Amino acid sequence: MKRDLISLTDLSSDEILQLLDVALDLKSKKGQLHDALKGKSVGLIFQKPSNRTRVSFEVGIHQLGGNCVYLGPKEINLGKRETPSDVANTLSRYLDAIVARTFLNSDVIDLANHATIPIINGLSDLYHPCQALADLLSVKENFQDLKGMTLTYVGDGNNVCHSLMLGCAKVGMHMHIASPKGYAPKEKVLSQAKEFAQSSGATIKLFTSPREAIHNTHVVYTDVWVSMGQEEESQERIDLFKEFQINNDLTALADKDYIFMHCLPAHRGQEVTAEVIDGPHSIIFDQAENRMHIQKAILMFLLGSH
Ligand code: CP
Ligand code: NVA
Predict the structure, then answer these.
(1) Distance between CA atoms of residues 196 and 194, nearest Å
(2) Is 101 noted as a catalytic residue in this protein?
(3) Are residues 268 and 215 in the same domain?
(4) What domain range is 109 assigned to?
(5) I need a surface site. Which of 40, 82, 177, 222 has the fewest CB within 10 A?
(6) Ligand 1 centroid to 201 CA: how many Å?
(7) pLDDT tens digits, residue range 78-131?
């Protein structure tokens, strides 16, 4: 039966750890060409802009010997020009897998329910699983261990935060989340993550004070205050999140060997200052590079060619 990657709930803890090992191995081979996807075609349905997700998938698919078809908002116009089920049924006749970046997570689920090929979530309003897997890979690379480490996420309880929360819970990493009232992660995702945390020994703690949350943490993580699709709320959010900026004053409270992470794109002067994101603790470009290595491992896993 085909598998999809819509949320990290779709993978067991062991599968996540295996994907990280495969990705590290692929990374050590420095983009050496491979034929795992020889003769296979992967479609990228994107309703929103992208730099990292699009380019890392396209280049990764090329390195695995596969073919890639980019379908931007104008081509597919999901749900408007055609229903997700018609799109999924049609594209299943041509392609071997689809990466979908949508507004609604329910559109990714709809695609998965009707496609006969694997659907990979390339970011929706609820989740960003490929990002979270690349993030776990980056933490593992830096600290060797995941279990028992603490990651503090400061900012909006959004798609990136949700997937990180599920990922940390699955691999036994503690997570602190500091967000303004009303912007904490969604209760449903939090309770799923807490269930996984119980089995792995991880803890998840919510804060409204970034200073309390960041104390002695190993990883400091933030994301934009205004996600794609929320542009109309920009000013309100920028005012509300002011106290949640990552700056040197705040990171002084983290572990002295902390790493700073951000999924990018970033807004210097809003969620993070230039001194932190461009400073010695920042690993943002390793993190961006790791998107490609983990996504190659994901494709090999879902297309059964590892
Ligand atoms: N981090 C990330 O998904 O970046 P893009 O939006 O540029 O793909
Ligand atoms: N939360 C951001 C992540 C971008 C990679 C967004 O959804 O726009």
Answers:
(1) 5
(2) yes
(3) yes
(4) 8-128+291-302
(5) 82
(6) 30
(7) 989 999 999 999 999 999 999 999 999 999 999 999 999 999 999 999 999 999
